[in-house]
Amino acid sequence: MDIYTAKIPGGNLTANGHETADGGFRILPGSTMRKDCVKADDKRLADFPGRRAELIENGVVELRGDHYVFLTAHECSPSMAACIVRGNSSNGLDEWKLPDGRTLGDNRRGRTTADRLLDDVADLLDEYDPATAKDTRERILIEKARRDGQPKFRKQLLKAYNSKCAITGNRIEAVLVAAHIDPYKGEETNHISNGLLLSSDWHTLFDRHLITVDPETLCLLTCLELRGSIYESYKDKRITTPAKPSNRPSRKALEQHYQTYLSLHPA
Predict the structure, then answer these.
(1) Which of 138, 190, 195, 231 is most buried, judged by most C-beta within 10 A?
(2) What pTM was estimated for this model as a whole?
(3) Rounded average pLDDT per 10-residue block, the chain, 267 residues
(4) CB 130 within 8 A of CB 182
(5) For residues 176 and 165, is the Cβ–Cβ distance under 8 A?
(6) Phi first, then psi: what are they for 10, rounded to 5°?
(7) What string of DSSP letters covers 124-162?
(8) Alpha helices for the chain (secondary structure H)
């Protein structure tokens, strides 16, 4: 696992972290966070001062002199992670670096398409229930397990959704991704009713809980961070679901994702 470092402006402090299996980023305990911050000039990252305040309020970080220290790990997007620790508008793909100087962006550009496809085969017996799923893999094995099984799971979702993104109807297979509704925990979570076929950008938004699906209406919800973007234009649009009932998204899994979204974006 590659450990990246970001330098904190105004001193010799640093923060460390690594990518997560779903493309996010985990800031590691012991990392430092700049005490003060400036407003982001990128609208997509405008809420990072609020995120910092939440970390302070929830005891994730502790003030030590002129900086904060992470007591526990925190997960978000690479750029949000860079903004949080550096206290300014930052591009995570450029700021997170390996000891040899390579950036997170350099590493991502060097990966193959197969490396980015992270899922496994689905169990088609009955509807998936996230409440019964168990974490059957050690975290360090999750990424490998998902890569090894992704083609089978994706193939089943492509068939179930007629090779179309459930949100936009996009038919370009090269950008269609098998997305988990309830996060991957092992083979038990690789159930077809725990999957959605999404374009890669929508997959990222769904994994970050910037969008969700109302389990009652199957209509799309978008958060305030997406206001004014092309993504907001799909708000309240009903997603497309498979014709076969057993292949349709699990209501329980959608409800879990929906409730997490509401907790992160209260009305």
Answers:
(1) 195
(2) 0.49
(3) 88 90 88 83 64 90 93 91 90 91 83 39 44 48 49 88 95 89 78 93 90 96 89 94 95 95 85
(4) yes
(5) yes
(6) 85, 15
(7) -SS---GGG----S-HHHHHHHHHHHHHHHHHHHHHHTT
(8) 48-57, 78-86, 92-95, 104-109, 113-116, 139-160, 200-207, 251-264
CA distance 148 to 43: 37
* Cβ contact 212:221 at 8 Å: yes
Between the alpha carbon of residue 266 and those of residues 49, 66, 210, 262, the distances in Å are 17, 32, 12, 5
The answer for residues whose C-beta is within 8 angstroms of residue 80's C-beta and 6 or more apart is 25, 45, 48, 51, 92
The Cα 126–Cα 101 span in angstroms is 48
Q: Are 33 and 84 a contacting pair, CB within 8 Å?
A: yes
The structure tokens listed for 181 are 């509704």
Q: How many residues does the chain have?
A: 267
Write out the two tokens for 62: 């502790």
Structure tokens at 191: 């159930």
Beta carbons of 33 and 68 less than 8 angstroms apart: yes
Based on C-alpha coordinates, what's the Rg of the chain?
19
